[in-house]
Amino acid sequence: MSKPVDLGALKVGSYILLPVSDQPTGEPCRISEYDTSKPGKHGAAKARIVGVGVFDGQKRPHVGPVSMQVHVPLIDKRTGQIISIIGDTIQIMDSETFETIDITLIEEELQGKLTNDQNVEYWKVMDRTKIMRIKN
């Protein structure tokens, strides 16, 4: 799920869906660079952004007019407790709904630091789930 926003309203640290060749909706990315140019003789002001993928970490450049409509992903940030770790799959129980979720995507800095009964923050973005950080 996403909502439309003008490209000129975004800033560094915002999230955006940037187009990818194999996905019709785009990849959720965090904006790491944002630069605008002044309107000139031949057109409107342009915005140049570089987004880093939330799930794959790839840099994706994008250029467009500041009035262009782009989509911003709706991020559902939740907390849960780790029930079990089996290979690459981590099973988490949500703290509010008590449902269990199997997650394979983990932030790189958390590799090897997760143990049973830890509370973690995980994000649900565009029907995908990723563990983002350890909660204290």
Protein architecture, described:
By secondary structure, this protein is mainly beta. Helix content is 0%, strand content 60%. It has no helices and eleven strands. The strands form three sheets. A five-stranded antiparallel sheet has the order 9-8-7-10-11, with no helix packed on it. A four-stranded antiparallel sheet has the order 2-3-4-5, with no helix packed on it. A two-stranded antiparallel sheet has the order 1-6. Strand 7 (76-86) and strand 8 form a beta hairpin. The radius of gyration is 18 Å and the shape is elongated. The model has no long low-confidence stretch (mean pLDDT 90).
| Largest sheet entry | 5 strands, antiparallel
Span from first to last CA? 29 Å
Q: How is the largest sheet built, in terms of strand order?
A: 9-8-7-10-11
**Helical fraction:** under 10%
Number of discrete helical segments: 0
Give the tally of β-strands: 11
What is the CA-atom radius of gyration, in angstroms?
18 Å
